[in-house]
């Protein structure tokens, strides 16, 4: 999930935790820029309660196939994406954005987690 999604979903984080999920934000910028974007999204680093990984060399982004796939503002950036990965490392859900604002609502990954917990 991106930092904006987490900032907008703060009230539902316990639902993810109740399903045994751990959320992780991967941001393709250096940590100072990440903090700036968090403030812009209405959150603070100490307010998120979710670990954040700054990925300025795009290692994680390239691993999941989203590095440098979308022009955002004046630069090439990583395609916004949301993944649910099970404990065995298998991707069970992925949403790769078609535009910068194309982000799933929390209900989508939550429904995947519920199905995984019931199987």
Poorly predicted sequence stretches spanning 5 or more consecutive residues: none
Rg on CA atoms, Å: 14 Å
What is the subunit arrangement here?
A: single chain
SSE run? HHEHHEHEEEEH
Summarize the main sheet: 2 strands, parallel
Q: Which structural class do the helices and strands define?
A: alpha+beta
Strand percent estimate: 15-25%
CATH architecture: 3-Layer(aba) Sandwich
CATH topology: Glutaredoxin
CATH superfamily: Glutaredoxin
- What is the CATH level 1 assignment? Alpha Beta
The strand count comes to 6
The overall pLDDT average reads 80
Structure description:
This protein has 119 residues and is α+β, with helices and mostly antiparallel strands. It has one domain: Glutaredoxin. Helices cover 36% and strands 19% of the residues. The chain is built from six helices and six strands. It has helices spanning 3-8, 13-18, 31-40, 45-48, 59-63, 107-118, and strands spanning 25-27, 52-54, 70-72, 75-77, 81-85, 91-96. Strands 1-2 form a two-stranded parallel sheet. The protein has a two-stranded antiparallel ribbon with strand order 3-4. Strands 5-6 form a two-stranded antiparallel sheet. A hairpin with a 2-residue loop joins strand 3 (70-72) and strand 4. The chain is globular and about 45 Å long. The two termini are 24 Å apart. The mean pLDDT is 80.
Question: Summary?
Answer:
By secondary structure, the chain is α+β, with helices and mostly antiparallel strands.
Characteristic key phrases:
119 residues; Glutaredoxin; two-stranded parallel ribbon; two-stranded antiparallel ribbon; 6 helices
């Amino acid at each position: 999930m991106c930092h904006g999604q987490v900032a907008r979903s703060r009230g539902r984080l316990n639902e993810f935790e109740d399903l045994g999920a751990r959320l992780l934000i991967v941001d393709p910028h250096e940590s100072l820029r990440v903090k700036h974007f968090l403030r812009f999204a209405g959150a603070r680093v100490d307010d998120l309660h979710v670990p954040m990984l700054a990925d300025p060399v795009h290692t994680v982004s390239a691993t999941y196939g989203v590095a440098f796939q979308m022009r955002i503002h004046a630069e090439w950036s990583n395609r916004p994406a949301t993944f649910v990965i099970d404990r065995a490392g298998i991707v069970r859900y992925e949403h790769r954005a078609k535009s910068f604002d194309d982000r799933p609502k929390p209900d989508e990954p939550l429904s995947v987690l519920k199905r995984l917990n019931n199987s």
